[in-house]
Amino acid sequence: MNNYTEIMIARTEHEQRNRSLPIVSDYEHCGHNEQLGWVGRQIGRLSNALGNGLTSVGEKLKHGRDVEVAATRATQEHESVLS
């Protein structure tokens, strides 16, 4: 076959394949935006839960330190009174 003919056949096939492909904007209606919104909400919920959990743990640790400090002060005061 002639090179020119092969090139023209390949070009025609390529153009036909490109025309048969769906347009990218057609995919926007397939719920892609809804999925992104759902993922965003889930990430927000996760970060909220994580923040609440860390706050709770921090409060427990602080409360534990406060109790230890109070107990140490009471022990020191008791020892100074006995001395």
Task: Please describe the topology of this protein.
Elements: H1 3-20, H2 32-82
Protein model, in words:
- The protein has a domain at 51-83.
- It is 83% helix and 0% strand.
- It is rod-shaped, with a radius of gyration of 35 Å.
- The protein has 83 residues and is mostly helical.
Contiguous uncertain segments of 5+ residues: none
Tally of alpha and pi helices: 2
Helix content: over 70%
Q: Radius of gyration from the CA trace?
A: 35 Å
Number of strands: 0
Distance between the termini: 113 Å
Helix-strand pattern, N to C? HH
Which quaternary structure do these chains form?
Answer: single chain
Q: Main sheet?
A: none
> What fraction of the residues are assigned to beta strands by DSSP?
under 5%
Structural class: mainly alpha
Global shape? rod-shaped
Short description, anyone?
The chain has 83 residues and is an all-alpha fold. The protein has helices spanning 3-20, 32-82.
